[in-house]
């Protein structure tokens, strides 16, 4: 009798271990699928993750109420169109310092193809298509991403509305193709700014095709200047008349 008294039933069905085993196998399979998906992520997704990570650190700085000194100088210049025109090189040097720009960004190309112009509504950062796109394409080049990221970085510290406008050259005249490529390029830059984290309510987009040339005339030098994207920072609402 005593030996039988020591035998107790566990209260679990004989095959209960199989439930635990199946749960473990499900977790392992989920982990394997996750590893597989991570190994096949494309470059554009990784770029977005990088931009998001940098934006998180930027939001931390903004939440703490700190604006880097160099960016504060740039902001003050962008809020004064005449001063910005006079100090274009100063803005370029502060926005794109050599010590942080990656090697794929050609400094000479940047200097030649970035202009800072006064407009009625504020200051326009004018980027020729050589900086941003391959000939005839509307997808941003890899080398354009660090340039736009620096522009987005300073814009994130501001509250002014931002308009992204695409322009084409006159080759082919006022054809649908010229309007289409100017629109697609403007949208590509706008999407970059959105992904960086700028408030959609601040952003607008325009496409002018060949209707608003930067330079008049013909020839490759003129066409190169006219194919551009302008990022207009609307810092003078009293002139532009927007709300």
TrEMBL record:
One GO term describing the cellular component: plasma membrane
Compartments where found: Cell membrane
Keywords: Cell membrane, Membrane, Transmembrane, Transmembrane helix
Superkingdom of origin: Bacteria
SUPFAM superfamilies linked to this entry: OmpA-like
Coiled-coil intervals, chain numbering: none
Pfam families xrefs: MotB_plug, OmpA
Chief localization: membrane
InterPro entries linked: Bact_OuterMem_StrucFunc (IPR050330), MotB-like_N_dom (IPR025713), OmpA-like (IPR006665), OmpA-like_sf (IPR036737)
Domain OmpA-like: 120-237
Membrane topology: Single-pass membrane protein
CDD domains for this protein: OmpA_C-like
Family: Belongs to the MotB family.
Name of the protein described by the UniProt record: OmpA/MotB domain protein
Source species: Desulfocurvibacter africanus subsp. africanus str. Walvis Bay
């Amino acid at each position: 009798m005593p030996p039988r008294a020591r035998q107790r039933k566990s209260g679990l069905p004989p095959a209960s271990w199989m439930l635990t085993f199946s749960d473990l196998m499900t977790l392992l399979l989920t982990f394997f699928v996750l590893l597989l998906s991570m190994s096949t992520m494309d470059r554009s997704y990784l770029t977005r993750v990088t931009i998001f990570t940098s934006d998180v650190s930027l939001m931390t700085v903004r939440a703490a109420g700190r604006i880097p000194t160099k960016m504060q100088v740039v902001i003050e210049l962008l809020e004064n169109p005449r001063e910005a025109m006079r100090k274009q090189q100063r803005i370029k040097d502060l926005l794109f310092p050599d010590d942080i720009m990656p090697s794929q960004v050609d400094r000479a190309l940047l200097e030649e193809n970035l202009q800072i112009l006064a407009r009625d509504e504020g200051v326009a950062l004018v980027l020729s298509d050589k900086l941003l796109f391959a000939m005839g394409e509307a997808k941003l080049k890899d080398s354009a991403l660090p340039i736009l990221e620096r522009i987005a970085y300073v814009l994130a510290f501001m509250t002014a509305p931002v308009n992204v406008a695409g322009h084409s050259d006159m080759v082919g005249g006022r054809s649908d193709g010229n309007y289409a490529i100017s629109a697609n390029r403007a949208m590509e830059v706008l999407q970059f700014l959105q992904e960086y984290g700028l408030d959609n309510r601040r952003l607008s987009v325009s496409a002018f095709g060949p209707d608003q040339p930067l330079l008049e005339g013909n020839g490759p030098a003129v066409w190169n200047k006219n194919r551009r994207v302008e990022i207009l920072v609307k810092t003078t609402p009293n002139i532009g008349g927007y709300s």
